[in-house]
Fold this protein.
Amino acid sequence: MNEYKIELLIINNAKNTIFNNEGKIVELFKLNDKFTIQQVSDKRYYKLIFKRKIFRFFIYTESKNIYSIAIYTTNANSLDILTEAVREFKITISSNLKDCNYEVLWDDVGIHYAELAFPEINKIENLMRKLITKFMLVSVGMDFFDNIPTDINLRDDKNDDSGFLHNIDFIDLTKYLFIKRPLKKQDDIMKIIDSLEENTFPTDINLLNYKRDSHWNRYFKEIIGSNVDADVIKKDWDELYKLRCKVAHSKFLKKDEYTKIKTLCENLSILFYNALEKLNEIVLSEENKETITEDVFSEIEGAVWHEKLYELIIRNFENEFTLKDLYVYEPLLREQYPENNTIRASIRRNLQKLRDDGRIKFIAHGKYQITKLE
């Protein structure tokens, strides 16, 4: 039979108070008319009745003015009422004792809900990885992962067959389908403008290709018949991440937090399963496949290249520089990353990331300026 316990440590710093021993602390709790407290055989053990439920109550003096109290139940159906009882204990302490603090030492109810939440989080996280991986392999192309430069492959263990995306953090998974990006690089539109002789765009230029939108909105939203926008999914995922951190960091989870986790996971699961079922209906042009691949490479290699390229820029340029200026350092970068055969592409991708971060400014075609940070 399982026993559930919530344990508090009470630190009573109040001076000249009558509540200065175990018995007096029990009398303090009796001031709350929601409780019925009856002493059992040993003076430290009591029977606590709250909302018609019976709990065992224990109090122990740790040192002067510091007391441990614990409330127990073996009834799994009484867990929520146990939590309410402890809340009433805290209210009673705060209402009657000044300069008195308490710490939660143990909470089996919180652990219980964390244990229920973990499988839900684990399942939705792997479902998200499955959707991204299948989209990249089935829709974008079977050779997607084979083309990732070795120096940006985040596999920690070459013998690990759990899948590439299992090395991507939970919070970063939304970057692949739910972050807004243009289909064509917005720098390219400057090339078109520079080539114009009149104030008219060529008819074969689709300006919508330069509009920022997520891959979810472009390719999944319509085929699964959903009106759920990528921004909504990302917001839910961010909220789920915060709750996931509580579980991962062994924090006591409240019932309403578990309920929220369950609701978020259920709603996201419906969307992801529907997207997986319709995946074969997505048709991408070769140009769009290439764009998506470059976007993903940019996210993956960012951890390696992003800061290093910025350091190189700051170290060698005072204000403005060109793409051609950076290409001078291609041999140096090739020496640092000998297995990367796309050095220039990596430079271009990470310049875009630095621009998006506000660290550099795009001036004209192939020309940049360092942003002075205050």
